[in-house]
């Protein structure tokens, strides 16, 4: 079938999705020019290799083109950011691994590449691309057909260019996988490791604990000095290292509020639409011409309808109009266009005259009609004709049988023919795959369905309302000179300041603020304490103030001071509670006596394991669990400072560990886990070692 030609653009999108998990990367463009060597045109530097804007943007556009083909031409802004992020990840992975594979002498020869594409061991991406969507089976012959007809089917050469790029990436991916396999091949689980892991998972403990939560000490009782904060920062500096530049902004939002005149005009408009819709005799055309949000008009059953429409239209006469009504920011009018009894699933068989064999030409239609007449006249059976004539190898060999299938499993034209007819119907339809002769064999769970068209008009402020809001925003900015006046202006205008921290240069949006990419770009080009001009985002105007700049590397103490103060307070609370708990435990005859002295309760811990240090009500407590499994039974412990509080405990007993039932199987599972971890860890280590400069935020 020639669905391959239709899917040619999907080849690139196929390896985009596996860029990280499978380390598939795209080939780096080598073009350069004096202009591109200028540092201002560099998107970044990866392991000593300059990445020019022209080369990088070419890769972004490749990803975007593939997404457009997959999404019917419309790519949301979020997906555009994803295409750019994927292009960068691909380059980083390609370059850092390329240096290692070259050092190791790893390469992919012509015979190996042939085997990946046309041989007995096709790459998973080849299998995915050349799998028949109707049968779910890989079609090896289609690979050869695609390659032979590639230039004929696309004289522009675009498909060939994409394919050659894809081949390069298959080879690159295989080289990387060889390198990963070489590293992970060194992973081996020793008997000691197996026993330790088995013990941590299967040795169980029963204990009783007394907990003094940190919240039992008031913050006011704890004094934190500057020297305490500095010491904690220096001792724990590794916690405050970041890999990317970050910014923190505060901002105010001024909504563009529709006026009473806007509401009146919108209501008048939707009422006219309702009147015209009632009188319309060309409902589908009216819907297409007037709805702001368009979707295919299909039949839906009772449970699939919106509650309002279910109540008002499901049992109404055809032609009934409901509305106008307001819902989710839009004025709407709904009309019942038709009623049918439709099945939930259909059994059918088909004969495909593939597009690559002229299925979309008049000759293809004529052939399908002639086959239909042979079946209807009784001169031949459908099954026999399918085995000889169908270009769908999966179903053709089975007499065209597709079995039962539900909705949304076939392309729309095929589905409409199968669900819209009745058992025994033989129909001819065309899809992007070619011309199909379909026989509807059976239909299950036939029940009432209705087709409803909903014409909506998104309610938005008028230009006059926007101008009023913009003037207000400009007046707000005019009086701001510094951080203090920003706060004063916000209070005067009764606007709430919002904070957005840890912004990355390549972020597509500020959380909770649509279409805010330009604000992020501004933040990375502004100086600390700068105040922005007015930004427009959807139906809002935004003014931002840059309050913090964090360069990659160790975060300055001043930026994490508040966070550290909380941690130091907890340490000091722990010291206080540890002394209190140890005093109570000293000389105590039982854990109940300790609890009595502390005015706390005894909590049982039943069947806990070292490998899963989670305590009900407290969460992760690794230090407590580690101490428990190193303790003696029946002995009251010293105080342990955990994550949520200070603990004193006594171990009642231990059970296990259970013997390893199948050492070989256990070793295989442990080594598989180690190999998976080594694959991700290898790339992370190489990436950390490589010098990477990311300037994308200046260009996108």
- Biggest beta sheet attributes: 4 strands, antiparallel
Mean pLDDT: 87
Helix segment tally = 24
Q: Beta fraction of the residues? A: 15-25%
Helical content class? 40-55%
Report, as a whole number of angstroms, the end-to-end distance: 40 Å
The tally of beta strands, per DSSP, is 23
Widest β-sheet, arrangement of strands? 18-3-22-21
Q: How large, in whole angstroms, is the Cα Rg?
A: 34 Å
Shape: globular
Strand-pairing-aware structural class: alpha+beta
Oligomer: single chain
* Poorly predicted sequence stretches spanning 5 or more consecutive residues: 1-38
Subcellular location: Cell inner membrane
Organism: Solitalea agri
Transmembrane segments: 7-25
Protein name: Periplasmic chaperone PpiD
Q: SSE layout and pairings?
A:
Blueprint (H helix, E strand, L loop, with lengths): L2 H4 L3 H7 L25 E5 L2 E4 H19 L5 H28 L5 H8 L6 H6 L10 H14 L4 H27 L6 H12 L1 E10 L12 H10 L5 E2 L3 E10 L4 H20 L3 H8 L8 E2 L6 H7 L7 E7 L2 E13 L2 E10 L7 H16 L4 H8 L3 H4 L4 E6 L5 H9 L5 E6 L2 E11 L2 E12 L4 H16 L4 H10 L5 E7 L12 H7 L11 E3 L2 E11 L2 E2 L2 H29 L5 H8 L3 E8 L4 E2 L3 E2 L1 H7 L11 E2 L3 E11 L7 H27 L2 E3 L6
Antiparallel strand pairs: 1-2, 1-23, 3-18, 3-22, 4-17, 5-14, 5-16, 6-13, 7-8, 8-13, 9-10, 9-12, 11-12, 15-16, 19-20, 21-22
Helix pairs in contact: 2-3, 3-4, 4-8, 8-24, 10-21, 21-22
Structure description:
The chain crosses the membrane at residues 7-25. With 700 residues, the chain is of the alpha+beta class. The strands form 7 sheets. It has a 4-stranded antiparallel β-sheet, with helices on both faces. Strands 14-5-16-15 form a 4-stranded antiparallel β-sheet. Strand 7 (321-327) and strand 8 (330-342) form a beta hairpin. Helix 21 (557-585) packs across helix 22 (591-598). The longest helix has 29 residues, at 557-585. The two termini are 40 Å apart. Mean pLDDT is 87; it is low at 1-38.
